[in-house]
Amino acid sequence: EGLLTLNLVDEIVGNKGNGNKESVAQGTANILNGFFFGMGGCPMIAQTLVNLSAGARARLSAIIASLTILLIVLVGAPVIGKLPMAALVGVMMMVAIGTFEWSSFRIINKMPKADIFIGVVVAAVTVLLHNLALAVLIGVILSALVFAWESARRIRARKYLDENGVKHYEIYGPLFFGSTTAFLEKFDVQDDPENVVIDFKESRIADMSAIDAVHKITERYKKLNKSVTLKHLSADSRLLLRNAAGAIEVNIDDPVYKVADK
């Protein structure tokens, strides 16, 4: 929630915060707080929005707010205790109305359905379980799954024969665990010529499932006495294949590009 709050403040104020510094500071403070039997804490979005709407722009405002709350707890508790609960509910309702992004309703029909679903799930978890951190975690997991699904559908292969009778497969899109099935379906092993080139100029091998897919397709061609050459592999893709050299066998032919001298 602290990083979410930092991003929100950056958008409103127009500054660029340091997420790493904030995380280290918050973690250090919470660790030290534990030695004094205190509770851990983090920046909160609602309170931050109220603070910003009041005109605060410096970190001094957070210190003043903390001291004010401490003063209320130590001195003003008897007075606060006499306030009717309905009045406090009204205050919180006005805070919610003032901080809610009402403009989101105007664009909800233009948003991807997956984003709408994830937003509804996050909101429902937050309201029902009163746990924003858990809701954000669930939202991140769902977003990652949606991204993996969409990326898996985007892998494509451009096929052509050159003048030497070599079949070329130019792969587009990332090759990872979600796209391996679609990747293997792109090849016509039975009808392809003896020499095949798989070009990864617009793709990259991302994980062990992708390496296994490359190994499977090369083995299929090898059983038919056909040669497969991999070209234009990225540096990280070559590293993955090199680390898996004991498990798979592939033929890599990457040209080395040099800058011509003037």
The global form is: elongated
Give the structural class: alpha/beta
Major sheet: 4 strands, mixed
CATH architecture of the domain at 154-243: 2-Layer Sandwich
Strand and helix order: HHHHHHHHHEEHEHEH
Q: In angstroms, what is the radius of gyration? A: 28 Å
Q: Do you know the CATH topology of the domain at 154-243? A: Transcription Regulator spoIIAA
CATH class of the domain at 154-243: Alpha Beta
Q: Determine the number of helices (DSSP H or I, runs of at least 4 residues).
A: 12
Low-confidence stretches: 256-262
List the helices and strands and how they pair.
Elements: H1 2-13, H2 19-35, H3 45-53, H4 60-74, H5 77-81, H6 85-99, H7 104-107, H8 113-129, H9 132-153, E1 156-161, E2 167-172, H10 180-184, E3 195-202, H11 208-223, E4 227-231, H12 235-243
Describe this structure in words.
With 262 residues, the protein is an alpha/beta fold. Among the domains are: 103-153; 154-243, Transcription Regulator spoIIAA. Helix content is 56%, strand content 10%. It has 12 helices and 4 strands, in the order H-H-H-H-H-H-H-H-H-E-E-H-E-H-E-H. The protein has helices spanning 2-13, 19-35, 45-53, 60-74, 77-81, 85-99, 104-107, 113-129, 132-153, 180-184, 208-223, 235-243; strands spanning 156-161, 167-172, 195-202, 227-231. A 4-stranded mixed beta sheet has the order 1-2-3-4. Strand 3, helix 11 and strand 4 form a beta-alpha-beta unit. Helix 1 (2-13) runs parallel beside helix 3 (45-53) and helix 8 (113-129) packs antiparallel against helix 9. The protein is elongated and about 90 Å long. It starts with a helix and ends in a 19-residue tail after the last helix.
